[in-house]
Design a protein that fits this description.
Protein name: Amidohydrolase family protein
CATH class: Alpha Beta
CATH superfamily: Metal-dependent hydrolases
GO molecular function: hydrolase activity
Radius of gyration: 21 Å
Number of helices: 13
Helix content: 40-55%
Number of domains: 1
Number of strands: 12
CATH topology: TIM Barrel
CATH architecture: Alpha-Beta Barrel
Strand content: 5-15%
Largest sheet: 6 strands, parallel
Pfam families: Amidohydro_2
InterPro entries: Amidohydro-rel (IPR006680), Metal_Hydrolase (IPR032466)
Low-confidence stretches: 1-17
Organism: Draconibacterium aestuarii
Order of helices and strands: HEHEHEEHEHHEHHEHHEHEEHEEH
Length: about 350
């Protein structure tokens, strides 16, 4: 009788344990949001692929070109949001044009008012602040510049999230041969203008992070979503300390899976424990860019990226990746953690969907 009870207990534990995790078969049935997508076209078929894979999209508008592009992209996103109100939402952003002229703050706030009225749920700032844009005296403008204070105070008062891609991965300040992930070495070899190892005259990695944190210190009520694991992707320990310091901040995972894979190779248990402890502060995203003219290959790329990341987060399969060298095992996060990372966290932090 005692043996039967023990066997029954073991069997029950196994059933409960298996029931607490998703499998690859669950991928298309679980509600998911890609919280860092880019749509730069008026006719996006990526939304249709998202519907097939049970995804919704948050398209992030970015000042990565001329101001005319910001305005045009906003109009495209507004149009798509009206066509697919249940499937996609979008952020606004602002330009740096007129920075040295009177009225920049007022004009920027008026523009952001219009973006929010049109349906944007947040405001994006990009790495051109701190790494590219210069004032009339040829000084790089950092994100903690006092001229931004009224804009960020406006966002704080209105409870509008600020979405920040500030700085770059720490690999950016290393020679290509010392970078920990192949996606970084590939990107910076193609974009040497952003490879800070080659530009010691620019602010250091530590300077970029300090400016970001100083801005947050000045705006303690600001809701902040740090893109790309807040550029602290190289260490879940350091990222944990940062999240502890800034309770109004969350992070998305976009384009930083390679760094997570790399750390998982070294210490899977530590990475898994990080995800479980900060399960309310992490948002899934990819940084995929849709510029229109989509092909079947592009749709397959989206699907395969989403499927790979699901395997890593939801299962304990042995995996390899073109992003890094070495083999690692998926994190197999509990269902409630997966549901937060893939959906409810984005809904809560952006107050959308």
């Amino acid at each position: 009788m005692r043996i039967n009870l023990i066997l029954l207990s073991i069997f029950s534990f196994t059933v409960i344990s298996c029931g607490n995790y998703y499998s690859m078969d669950d991928f298309k049935s679980v509600e998911k949001i890609d919280a860092h997508f880019h749509i730069y076209t008026s006719e996006s078929t990526a939304v249709e692929q998202a519907k097939k894979d049970k995804f919704k999209l948050l398209s992030i508008n970015t000042h990565s070109g001329a101001c005319e592009r910001v305005i045009e992209s906003h109009q495209w996103l507004r149009k798509l949001n009206k066509e697919y109100p249940a499937e996609m939402e979008y952020s606004g952003t602002f330009c740096m044009d007129g920075w040295d002229e009177p009225g920049w703050n007022e004009n920027t706030i008026n523009w952001l008012d219009q973006c929010i009225a049109d349906g944007a749920n947040s405001v994006k700032v990009w790495k051109n602040i701190g790494m590219e844009f210069r004032d009339k005296n040829a000084n790089l403008v950092m994100i903690d510049d006092p001229q931004f204070d009224t804009v960020f105070a406006y966002l704080s008062e209105k409870k509008i999230p600020l979405v920040g891609h500030l700085g770059e991965p720490k690999n950016c300040w290393l020679p290509l041969s010392e970078m920990t992930t192949k996606n970084d070495s590939g990107y910076f070899s193609r974009n040497p203008q952003y490879h800070m190892y080659k530009h010691p005259e620019f602010p250091s990695y530590e300077d970029q992070m300090a400016a970001r944190d100083h801005m947050l210190d000045k705006n303690p009520d600001l809701i902040f979503i740090g893109c790309h694991l807040a550029s602290l992707e190289w260490s879940v320990d350091v990222l944990a300390e940062w999240l502890d310091k800034y309770p109004n901040a969350a992070v998305d995972m976009a384009a930083r899976m390679g760094q997570l894979f790399y750390q998982t190779c070294e210490d899977r248990d530590k990475v898994r424990a990080f995800f479980i402890k900060y399960q309310n502060r992490i948002l899934y995203g990819t940084d995929i860019i849709d510029r229109g003219g989509n092909t079947e290959d592009f749709h397959n790329k989206i699907h395969e990226t989403w499927l790979r990341d699901w395997e890593y987060l939801a299962t304990r399969n042995k995996m390899t990746s073109s992003l890094i060298d070495g083999e690692f095992r998926g994190l197999q996060l509990p269902k409630e953690v997966i549901d937060k990372i893939y959906s409810s966290n984005t809904k809560r932090w952006y107050k959308s969907f």
